[in-house]
Amino acid sequence: MLTKTSTEVVRQQNTALVLSALRRKGALSHTEIAEQTGLASATISVITAELERSGTIAKTEQHVQGGRGRPRVLFAQRRDCGYVIVVRISSDIVQYSLADYGGVLLDRFEEARSHDAGDAAAFGQVFLAALERLLQRSRIEKEGVLAVSISSKGLVAGDGARLLWSPVFGRQELDFSKLLRPDWRARIMLSNETLLVAQALAAKAEEKGDAFKGLAAISLGHSIGLGLARRGRSGELDVSAPNFGHMLHASSAGLCRCGAYGCIEAAAGFYGILRAAFEVPSDTIPAKFVPLAEMDKIAAGARQGQRMPGYAFRQAGIALGNGISRMLSLYEPMPIYITGQGTRYFDLLQKGVEEGLAQSLQVRLEGLPEITVVGDEQRLVFDGHLDRALSAVDSDITAAGHS
Amino acid sequence: MLTKTSTEVVRQQNTALVLSALRRKGALSHTEIAEQTGLASATISVITAELERSGTIAKTEQHVQGGRGRPRVLFAQRRDCGYVIVVRISSDIVQYSLADYGGVLLDRFEEARSHDAGDAAAFGQVFLAALERLLQRSRIEKEGVLAVSISSKGLVAGDGARLLWSPVFGRQELDFSKLLRPDWRARIMLSNETLLVAQALAAKAEEKGDAFKGLAAISLGHSIGLGLARRGRSGELDVSAPNFGHMLHASSAGLCRCGAYGCIEAAAGFYGILRAAFEVPSDTIPAKFVPLAEMDKIAAGARQGQRMPGYAFRQAGIALGNGISRMLSLYEPMPIYITGQGTRYFDLLQKGVEEGLAQSLQVRLEGLPEITVVGDEQRLVFDGHLDRALSAVDSDITAAGHS
DNA sequence: GCTTTTTTCTCGACAGTCGAGAAAATAAAT
DNA sequence: ATTTATTTTCTCGACTGTCGAGAAAAAAGC
């Protein structure tokens, strides 16, 4: 449905455009902003004056220039304009970070999670306390925090605040909005971890300037994650994290820790590979956690040509390949990026992946998708967090306008 | 990426809003347009004056009113403002229709397709000749045609003009844009048939006013089609037709007529059901066309409790159910609408569908999706055609503006 | 014929963008 | 030291668009 538009919307949009240019390119002068945005110089004057008045951006005093004429004055976000909290929840640790409005990391600490205690309510209290600690350590007021961006593996509800299913808490729903709402007026954002990887990779690809249409990020590890970033018709980036790890592969894949049979994860997650390698009956309840050393041993065996370990990785690869082929059937063709701890076994998976891919019409028509292994998943997740949180904050600011 | 906006964009948007209100609600008066769109009365005056000047809309002379004050004058699209051609290509016939800018059907004829001749180039010539005939019969100039909307089963390229794969022409690519471009300046639109069903159903749902989030249409027949209609974040409707029928189901499903093994269609398409019912080896090259009478016989057998026919439908149902569950894993939960000739066997499929659905985490979390059988697929396809083509024409008109 | 009622049209105010040229601020030249 | 050239930033008037209020139009009732 279309909606009414007025000139104020135009201003909002163009203000957002200026802020995002500043976000992407760093400090810019009047003329550079005009170049980047395509707006007229006069318009830039009005918009920057307004943003400066509201305390969002400021002139930086450095007038570095060798040129001839009047020196440029650079605009940049006022970094003390507000703060962003980033929380990465993983199976073993929870990492709390504080960054300023400019995206500069100010503080960070981690807390170990006990493997056995998976009580969501208890975690909520620990979580709240940690946020308070983060504020105290940097002497920042709650009101100064503009966004709290949280990530976990698992399935996030469409509203972006509720964790519906996660490897850590299972089906215990975790509503971060409800948890924080009375006290915190910051924007609460919950994202799937691999979604953030996709977001970060998409941002990088756009930076490079090559015509970006879409990409898929797949994270291999104890669980299997998928993040999609696609450019919508309107030109905006659309990122999502479908429930790939627990998409049905084949019932032969056995019992998954989600309780269903035949998920991709039950074949390609670490515990699935382990189960196949040791010929454990496939309806055994899977281990909560597989030490990496254990996986390394199996991989070593497979590389030495042992039969069952090799078979286990191959089966895992086929499950992945089939899953990717199904995903490509339901979306457009796009390049695939593989991350996560499991990439260290990608040599063992690759053959199976290609075999699993080759079976479908989609791949026969379009050819094998481009598959790239990328390292440093944690860094990508954090970058994705910042990208997402800060652009949300930017749009909040432009929406608030002159109130 | 955001993009520059100016006041002209505002005008375009609001003009489009007026046109779409007129399209949805029929003839409207000045005040009614203001109500529908939320725009100020003064704005309506300017926009309608402009549209009237350009010949897109006109005042209808009927002043039906019992009320007291000044009678309302109704605005409506000038039906002779332009024309739209709709072509439905199915396996046995090709239907050509002509409608005016108001969406009123003016002329229609069908041409039988010979089953053997699947030559794409030859078809192109037949197609062109038929379009000419359509023009001649109604004495309309080529320039008066604003859009040619074509539909077929199969896979349509992202540009909306090339047929990449179809049950009729196989992998012979058919580029309608290239075929029509020199002579026709109309907008060329090629859509998957089931996409149009989804579009029509979504339009109906929006009309009803219930908060519409998304839906999936599945067409059962010789081949299996999927159309998705989802509301994007920006509020616009996003319809697509992923390659569902040839998504990998399980290699046990046997050889598909696309040449791959294990497609959903190879299990749930008519020929797949027939093959299973008669215990034909699953790598047999599938029949091009299965008479409906043949299918009816198998169904009758299944309803009488015969083993293999019952098994065949059940297998088909499971393939569908698994496919739907995978689709729901990769998108959000949404209601499912089933159409096509195959709906007459839905009683036989249903059990298997539910069984196939129940296996996945997604369904365990969200519950079984709502499944509705809807008849009159051909009507829905035509409605979808008109909806899509006319709104495209509307946006062309608003984009052209005062040139 | 006058009043009432409803609808449509018009006018001035306001918000936004744009292009052109003025003003500012520096480096190089004289 | 002063002038000139160059580059950047700012400002002004023109243009386009929406909006609210009230005027004008057109019919029904008295």
UniProtKB/TrEMBL annotation, chains A, B:
InterPro entries: ATPase_NBD, ROK, WH-like_DNA-bd_sf, WH_DNA-bd_sf. It comes from the Bacteria. Gene3D superfamilies: 3.30.420.40, Winged helix-like DNA-binding domain superfamily/Winged helix DNA-binding domain. Pfam families: HTH_24, ROK. This is Xylose operon repressor.
